[in-house]
Amino acid sequence: MKAGESTLRKLIQGEQQFVVPLYQRTYAWGPQQLRTLWSDVLDQADGLAKGRDSGHFLGSIVLAPGPDLAPTNSQWIVVDGQQRLTTLLLALCAIRDHLAAEDPSSLDRINELHLINKWRHGDLRYRLLPTQADRAALMALIDGQIDQRVTGPIADAYGFFRAQLVDADDPADPHDITRIENVILDRLSLVQITVESDDNAFRIFESLNNTGTRLSPVDLIRNYVFMCLPNRGQYVYDMYWLPLQEKLRDEHGTQALELLMYLVLVLRLGEDAKYSDVYRGHQELLDETAGDEAKVEAYVADLARRAAHLKLILAPETEQDPRIRDRFRFLNQWQAQTTYPAIMKLLELREDGDATDDDVAASLTYIESFLVRRLVGGIPTRNLNRIFQRLTGQIPRDESVPEAVQAALSPARSYWLDDEELRTAIRSSKFYWQGRAGQKKLVLGRLAETYRGGEPVRIDDKRITIEHVLPQHLTDAWRDELRANGEDPELLHKELVHTLGNLTLTAYNSELGDLPYERKRTRLGQTGIAMTQAVVERPRWGKDEILARADDLADRAIELWPGPAEREPDRSAGRDWTLLHNALAALPTGTWTTYAEVAELTGSAPLPVGVHIANVPVLNAHRVLTSEGRPAKGFRWHDPDDDRDVHDVLKKEGITFDESGRADLAQRISAAELAQLLGLPGAEDMQAPETVDVDPGKMSEHEHRFHSQVVERNGPEVAGAVAKLLNHWSALGFGCSFGSAATARCTPSLGRDGRGYWLLNIYPDSVEVPFSPLTTRPPFNDPEVRDQLRRRLNEAPGIDIPAAKLTLYPNFPITRLADQAVWDVVVATLDWFVHMTRSE
């Protein structure tokens, strides 16, 4: 095969004919594929209008010589890619007919340049001949005979493009449709692959389609590499490509090769690398070689070197150092692919002599600790990919590598629990519900290794399972066991049953069930696992024993998994506004967005977005406007000496305002467009946010301080959930009071008979339920009604208010409000609270 990059214009120029053979399926693209293509076309057209020099990789076209191929007749069989080729020509038909309404010359121009061979006759007249089932429909469209013959998917696709062109045609912009035409012809990149005349086109088609095997990014990269090596191709293939391919394919198949290509991109590009665009990324790297075969060979040699590093990670038995081998096995069982870029960097440093085995082993220990401590603390896994991508650029060659890794992972936004946070989490976190089952077994397995004696614990042994010593189902015998110290057995069970202190490893899980402790103790004593033997040494099993074991496990965990570098006391481990900062930094020149759009992108609400921008210097913050396109009245530059008029600054940056002082809506960037600029997944699914205006400058001192503390300590999601909760309360017609103490407070309240009623006191770290004042306010002075309130709140996941606190001030972490299920329960309880207060 011969492969090369092309565009539609290059592919179809001249008197060409492309024939789709009978053995191929008929045209089958539907609305989903068409919408995806059209979105890419519009994005490129927008870039063209703004002067961006970019393109979009659409896929490959595989061609074989046609039966009538001759020097005077250029005919090709479309072995693969007929769907995209047919779609692009249908789009040109639609553009031709759309433009012809105003400019009849467009008919002949587009026909003769792209759709027909003017001086040919019969079937040879058409640039594309689909399969027989689609041929009449496409011919009719090209000939402008839109009648009953044009039916099925061909007609549907043509109709789709006609409708989209009407929507995209801007009367104020006479060049918009022309830009779309240029994008289709010149900015959608194709890989043209041509097979030799003696190859069997049908067999090639079978290998690409019938078996389900299509050209992968690795295949495309390989083709592009050797297209760049016309003279040294065979040598480079034998010396580098074939060995690296075999090295990774032996045990891990083509997925390992794709992973290698992605990891190499991360090491070259950092956070800009995208798994979904691996081919395009490598194509750009190869284009930088400017046709220098020595540089292309060096590029492939580097791939081979990286392949050896990846082989060590995926097949740890090939690593010589036992400490590193052990860490690799752990991370593989953890399924920690997000860490691979950082590990590849460590192995690069070791090979270059800038890190020792000791350095790599210590660095891997920090990485393992980072993952484990986050799991124990219940920290979500989001942002892990970005954290480790960023880490590859934060490990210098001229400093201590382990210290650099520890420091890079230690900022509060990374949520790496320190020793005290880890102790607290081990005592109270419901570890059994954190992460995947295999990860929990790995944590317990590591802890089991710290006990002397006993048999080794093989985590991959399926007979070894996690056992609750205090069983998940509370029996009468266990109630008696927990009641020994006068405690509430139901409450203790809820608090302790899933914590790490109550969990161990055993091969007898199915046999133990809910046995009373004395009988379970006997069975557990038969295990050879030293960790479990330590449990059965205790004559009883209750709160004191579980917490004592939790403290012992915490000591072992702290010794086993060293924590982050020392940092200033900071209660803001949950704050991470990186996405907001990145989004505003990516705003193209001459565009603006709104508080609501940024909130939609970050999963927050307009108010906390406004508060964060008001409190923290953010690039392009002045380009965040109200929904009407006006700067917030309270907008201030962070530099107190900066007296520029924000309107003047925006105008100089290319944003236009109408006579009423509103920014041009055409220059507004939506949340979906911000997500596209950042390459985030799911951008197309983002909804237009509700129109909400905010202005932190209009808040009272105490209100601003409350929201600032919530924003600073908890980040966008929690702050957004709090803001939405207060918006709901305000929509009911009630107000809030804000405390004046150093720790801010917000109390949503309502009045009745001259007295105040409130269900919640919201602090920056917690949400308090003030049962005590409700004891004097009907109908909540009835304990049964307060208990009903308690039980309603307890329907929320993670909220468990004990009945013993119906006259006190119980609370739950404010972070729970970021869970939609919790938020829904709290809001429903507020509505019920209002109903009960008003109906009495």
Please tell me about this protein's structure:
With 840 residues, this protein is α/β, with parallel strands linked by helices. Helices cover 51% and strands 8% of the residues. It has 34 helices and 16 strands. The strands form 5 sheets. Strands 1-6-3-4-2-5 form a 6-stranded mixed β-sheet, sandwiched between helices. Helix 5 (132-142) runs parallel beside helix 6 (152-168), helix 27 crosses helix 30 and helix 28 (606-615) packs antiparallel against helix 31. 38% of the residues are buried. Residues 209-213 and 568-574 have low confidence and may be disordered.
Strand percentage lies at 5-15%
Q: Specify the helix fraction band.
A: 40-55%
Largest beta sheet: what is the strand line-up? 1-6-3-4-2-5
Please count the helical segments.
Answer: 34
| Average pLDDT level | 86
What characteristic shape results from the CA principal axes? Answer: globular
| Rg from Cα | 33 Å
Q: Low-confidence parts, pLDDT < 50 over ≥5 residues?
A: 209-213, 568-574
Separation of the first and last Cα atoms? 83 Å
* Secondary-structure content class: alpha/beta
Largest sheet: 6 strands, mixed
Report the count of strand segments: 16
Helix and strand arrangement:
Elements (H helix, E strand, L loop, with lengths): L1 E5 L1 H5 L3 E4 L11 H19 L6 E10 L8 E7 L1 H19 L4 H11 L12 E2 L2 H11 L9 H17 L7 H12 E7 L6 H10 L6 H11 L5 H37 L8 H10 L5 H22 L7 H13 L5 H12 L5 H20 L7 H8 L9 H9 L9 H10 L8 H12 L16 E4 L7 H7 L6 H8 L6 E4 L2 H4 L4 H8 L5 H7 L6 H18 L17 H8 L7 E2 H8 L3 H10 L8 E2 L20 H7 L18 H7 L23 H31 L3 E4 L7 E7 L2 E4 L2 E2 L3 E3 L2 H4 L8 H11 L17 E3 L6 H20 L1
Parallel strand pairs: 2-4, 2-5, 3-6, 9-10
Antiparallel strand pairs: 1-6, 3-4, 7-8, 11-12, 12-13, 14-15, 15-16
